[in-house]
Amino acid sequence: MMHANLTTSMDDSRAVGPGGVWRCRDRELGLNDRPAIMGVVNVTPDSFSDGGQTVDLHAAVAHALSLVEQGADIIDIGGESTRPGAQAVDAAEQLRRTIPVVRRLSDSTDVMLSIDTRLAEVARDALDAGAHIVNDVSALAGDPKMPALVRDTGAGVVLMHMQGEPATMQDAPFYEDVVTEVGDFLKQRTRFATDAGIEVERIVVDPGIGFGKILQHNLALLSHLDRLSAGNRPLLVGFSRKRFLADIIGECGPKDRLAAGLAVTALAVWQGVSVIRTHDVAATRDAVGVGCALLRARED
Hints:
eight-stranded parallel sheet, TIM Barrel, 9 helices, about 40% helix, alpha/beta, two-stranded antiparallel sheet
């Protein structure tokens, strides 16, 4: 299976967006040929989409390896649900859930690994176990030790926008101009990270679809993704199976939102997004291919 940092399997390998290179420890992920796909592995009992299905070590590893086989370029492993209303999970429990999975995957696959956490202690042990990326929904604001950890390890980092905390973020979120405010936040956090000594090539930014945002906010952001790349850093988006899709297509469960999510995927690629975070790797890869083809046709 070809991955984003290898030769693309598409016939036409011209650059399709801002792309560039994401440096993550001793690895580089090329983003010019097509957006990278980040597959989600939730080692939690209460995630909104698949809570409880991959809590067991063997189930989590098997699921991750199946996502690799489907074409994931990155596996994102999380031990704390950040769904709306979720309560924080302490470091000890996150470590218990995630580190055995990271360690086993590091021994089993060459695909890059990401740890989804706000806590430096969890990130440190995951990096020691073989992870390459810290996916921090607090954009380095959740733990004062996190910026130095990312700097000193050379990890790749995702800086995400979130209004409030997961437990309360959907309690009447408000923006005067959501696109401008989220874009400004991502620029500010990118400057914060570089001021802390983190090399800019290690930074990817994420507008945080569904994190402290109602339907109209999510739609505004998804319609203007090309305005959100902070300092021309690659943009990651994660909207897979999220509630706002049901608000558009009608009430349905998370796994019934796939088609809607694939439509958004093609739109995101069209606007130059560099990383797509998803639960459904194989189908998302196809949608990414369609988006890339449309971009190349526009260039012609």
